[in-house]
Amino acid sequence: MSAPLIAEPLLERAPLIARDWLTHALPEPLRWIANSLITIVVLLTVFGLLFAFLTLAERKVLGRVQNRPGPNRTGWAGLLQPFADGIKMLTKEDIVPRTADRVLHFLAPVAILGFSFLTFAVIPYGRHLVPVELDAGILYFFAAGSATELSIFMAGWSSHNKYALVAAMRALAQLISYELPLLLSAVPVVLAAGTLSASGIVEAQAGYKWGLVPHWHVLTPWGAASFAVFFISALSESNRSPFDLPEAESELIAGHLTEYSGFKYALFFMAEYFGMCALCGMAVTLFLGGWQAPLPALEFIPSYAWFSAKLLALLLVFIWVRATLPRLRMDQLTRFAWKFLVPLALVNLGASAFWSLTFAWTGPMQAVRWAVSLALAVGPFLLLGLRLGSGIGKRTYRCA
Amino acid sequence: MNIPGLPPIELAPGPQIRAVHDELHGDLLELSMGPHHPSTHGVFRMVVTLDGETVVKLKPVFGYLHRNHEKIAEATSYLASMPYTDRLDYLCSMTNNWAYALAVERLSGQAVPERAEYVRVILAELTRLLNHTCLAGFLLQDGGASGTPLMYAFREREKILDLFESLSGSRMMCNYQRFGGCRADPSPDWLAAASTLAEGYGRFLDEYEALLTGNEILMARTQGIGRLSPKLAVSAGVTGPMLRATGVGYDVRKVDGYGVYPRFPFRVPVGAHGDVYDRYMVRILEMRESIGILRQALRDIPAGPILDPKSKQRGLRPKAGEVYSRIEGPKGEIGFFLISDGGPNPYRYRVRPPSLVNLTILEDMCLGQSIADSVVILGSVDIVLGEVDR
Amino acid sequence: MLGIGLLQGLAVTARNFLGSFHDPKRFVTVQYPEERTRLPEAYRNFPFLVSESAEDPMGTLRCVACQICEKECPPQCIYIEKSRDKKPDAGGRPQIYPAVFDIDIAVCMSCQICVEVCPFDAIKMDQVFELAATDRFGGLVLDRHALAKPNSYFQQVHPAEAADVDERLAAARRAAEEKARAAAAAKLAPPRPAPAPKPPAAQSAEAQKPSPPAA
Fold this sequence. Notes:
The structure holds three protein chains of three kinds.
Chain A: H1 10-23, H2 28-65, H3 81-90, H4 102-118, H5 137-158, H6 162-193, H7 198-204, E1 208-209, E2 213-214, H8 221-237, H9 263-287, H10 303-324, H11 330-357, H12 364-388, E3 398-399
Antiparallel strand pairs in A: 1-2
Chain B: E1 29-33, E2 45-51, E3 54-61, H1 69-74, H2 78-86, H3 93-108, H4 114-142, H5 148-168, E4 177-178, E5 181-182, H6 188-212, H7 216-222, H8 230-236, H9 241-245, H10 252-255, E6 269-270, H11 276-300, E7 321-329, E8 332-340, E9 348-352, H12 354-359, H13 362-366, H14 371-381, H15 385-389
Helix pairs in contact in B: 2-3, 3-4, 4-5, 4-11, 4-14, 5-6, 6-11
Chain C: H1 4-19, E1 47-51, H2 68-72, E2 78-82, E3 87-88, E4 94-95, E5 98-104, H3 113-117, E6 123-125, H4 136-140, E7 141-142, H5 144-147, E8 148-150, H6 151-157, H7 159-188, H8 200-207
Parallel strand pairs in C: 1-8
Antiparallel strand pairs in C: 1-6, 2-5, 3-4, 5-7
Helix pairs in contact in C: 6-7
C-alpha cells in the first residue's frame, strides 16, 4: 500500500494507523508477512460478516417487499438469524455418497471458496486500502473469478449422480456464456482509463466536471450501457434470479449441489455470496468511481465508507431484482447472452473507443459527441431487443 | 383397437417415441416428478420420459388424496354430505356447496328464494376472484418469482376469506349453502364490506397487472407454451378458463343461465392461442368481469327470506330419480350426478371434477416441450388435488 | 416491451417495500401470539354444551340426550349415552340427561350441523383453537365436563345468537307458563252449585227419581 499523506483526515488513515500500531515493532520481512496476514484476516472477517448479514438482509428485504416482516424472532429484529442458520448448517450430517470421488467431493467447496476469495485481493476498498497493488488487477480478477466455474463442475462430477452432472453442465454453460459479456463490458473501461490496474481505474474517475458532476464512467453513454451489461452478467455469474435455473427449487433436477449437505453446502453458499460481493465491488470500481465521493463537499466522509455505501446499494438492487422477476429458462438464458448481450457489448466497445478518441471536442462538437455516443448505446439496444422479443408481446382479447 | 363383437376402432396415431436404448442418440430418461412436489400443487405425480430436455411421454399419476368421498356419501344423509363438498376443491368451497345444493334441490323439487339466489351469485363471484388470484400467484411461483406475486395474491385473498368467515363462520370450509337457500342471512354491514372489497379489487388488479402482465420474462416463459387446440379441448371435455383460452366461448353461466345470472350482463373473454399466457390472461379478464357482476348483485339484492320456509334439510328423502346439475365453478364445470332410491342417503353420488377432466389433456400439451415448461403448464391447468382425487 | 415491463414490475415491488414501513395495508402480518386478530362473531370451532348456570353445570345442561346430533354428525364424532334415571332440569321437571357425552375433537370438522339440528339449543359452536394436547385420546376426546360451559359464556362469544336464543327460550317459557297458569286456574275454580233440594210435598214423588248426577 502507498504511504499515507500527512494532510489527510484522521478517519481516512485510521485503518493504516491501526495496522502499523500492531506491527511496527517487527523486523522488516516479518512485518510484511504480518501486514498481509492482518489484511487477509480483516477481509475474511468483514466479508464473512457481510455474507452473514446479507443473507438476513435478503430475507428481510424480500419479506418487506412481500408485505411481511421477514425473520424477526431470533435476537432483536432477527439479527441473530444468520448465526442460527450457521449452527444449523454445522450440525447437519456430512454425507458423501459411497461411489463418489472423495477427494474431488471434498475439494470442490474448498476450491470455490478459495478462488472466490482470491478475487477480493485487487479491489480498492479505500484510498489506501488495496490488498495487492497489481498492474494487471482486472485481468487477475476475471481469471480468479473464472476458476470458480471449474469448482462447480468438480462438484457435479464428483457426486457420481447423473442428475447432478447434467445440472453442473447446465450451470457451466450458463457461466461460460455470461463470462463473455462480463469481460466485454469491462474492456471499454480499460480502454477509457488506459490501465488494467484497479486503483488506476478509480484514479481515472477522479475530479468533477463543473465542480459538481463526477467523472464516473457510469455517467457517460457508453459507461451506462456497459454498466447495464456488466450488472446483468454479474447477476448471472452469481446464479441469482432471474438466472438461477441451475439451483432452482421448483425445477426437477435438484442442481449440482444435490449431494452436498451441512457445512460443505454452507461453503458453496458462502462462495456464491462472496462472488456476488466481489462482482459488485468490481462494478463499483469500474463504473461508479470506486471509493470517490459523488460531490466535492462530501469528501470528508472516508473513502471506505463511500465504497461500502455503493457496494451495499448494488447488493440491495440485486435483492430487489430477485424479489421481482421470474426466472428464465435455460435456452432463453443462453440466447439472451449470445444474441443480445455480446453484440451489445461489442458495439459498446466501439462507442467507448469513439468517446476516448474525441475527448478533445469542445463546444458544439460536445453535443455531437454525446449524440453519437447515445445513438451508439441506444440504437443497437433497440434493434437487438426488438429482434429478441419478436415472438412475444402483449395481446388483445375478444369476448364471446 | 379390437373389442370382440364390435367394429374395429381407429385411434389417432400416438406420439412416435424412438427406442429407449439407442446407441446413436443416447438413452431416454424416465423421471418421476412428485408426489412430494417442489411446486405447489398437492400430491400429484408426473412420470415423464425425457429425450435430453424434451418431454416425449408424460403420464400423470394421481389418487394420492383419494378419500372415498363418493362412497361415503352413499352412507351419509344429504345434509351431512354438504360439509364434505367443502373439501373437494378446498379453495372454492362456496361454489362446491352451490353445485351440490342445486343438484339436491332439483332432485327433491325445492324452490329457492330470490335473496338467496343473489347471495349465491355474490359468493360464487367472490370465490372466482379468490381462485383466479391464487392461480396467478401459484403460476408465477412455479415460474420462479420468489414468492412475491404469491404473497400479493394471498394478501388480497385474506380479505375475501375474512368476508366468508364473518358470514359462514369458517374461512375455507364454509358449509354455507342449504337445500332451498342459504344457512345465514348476510347483514347490511356484510354487504357494505363486500361492496368495499369489490371497489378496491380493481385497483389491486391494476397493480398486479403492472407487476406481471407486461413482464417480458413472464411473456417469454408462457407465450407459445402448452398450446391446446379448441378441437382437442372440446373432445377431451375441458371446461372453464382453459377452454375459453383456446377460443371456445363456452361458459355454463351463459349456456344454462342457472340462478339469477341472466339478470347480470357480463362478457366472457376468450383467448386466441390456447397457450399458458392466454389462460393466465383469460383469468385476469374474468376477474374484472366478476367485479362487475359483484357490483350489480350487491346493488340489486332484494330483501326477503334467505331460506325457503318449506325447505327440508334434515331427514330429506327425495323421491326416486336421478339428476345431473352443474355450475360454472372457477376451475370449470363442476357437476353433481345424484341417483336417489327414496331413502335418506343417495344411491349413487358422483362428482364431475373439472380439475380431473382438464388434467387428462396434460400429456398432449406438454409433448415436445422442455421439462421446465411442463411445470408451468401444470400450473396453468389450475388443479386442486382434493377435486382430482376426491 | 424492451424491458419496460420489467421496470414497471420493479416499481411495484419498490412501492410495496417502501410502503411496508408506514402503510398498514402494505404490512399485513399479525405477529401472533403477541397480537391476535379479532375473530368475527360467526367464527366457529368445535362445539360446547350449554348449561343454564355456571354453579351447577351438570345439573342445568340443556341437553336431554335425544341423540339427534349424534345421528346427523357427518364424521360421527359424538358419542352419547342416555341416563337411566331422571333429574330435574332447569325448569324443574324431571328430564333424562346425558350420562356420557363425548366429542372427539380430532375428528370433528366444525361443520356446525349438530348445532343446526339440536331442537333444544343445547349444543352451540365454540371459538377455541389453542387446544394442542400430547395425549391423543386423553387430551382430544372431550367429555361432558370439558364441554359444558355456561350460558353467560355463550352470550360472551356469540352475543347476537345468544340474544336470539334467550329471547326464543324466554318466549317459550312464558307461553308454557301461560298455559300452565290457565290449566291451574281451570282446576282451582269453584265447582258448579248442586241443584236445590225439592220441597217435601214433592219429595216422596221424586224419591223414586234417580238422584241428579253430582256437579
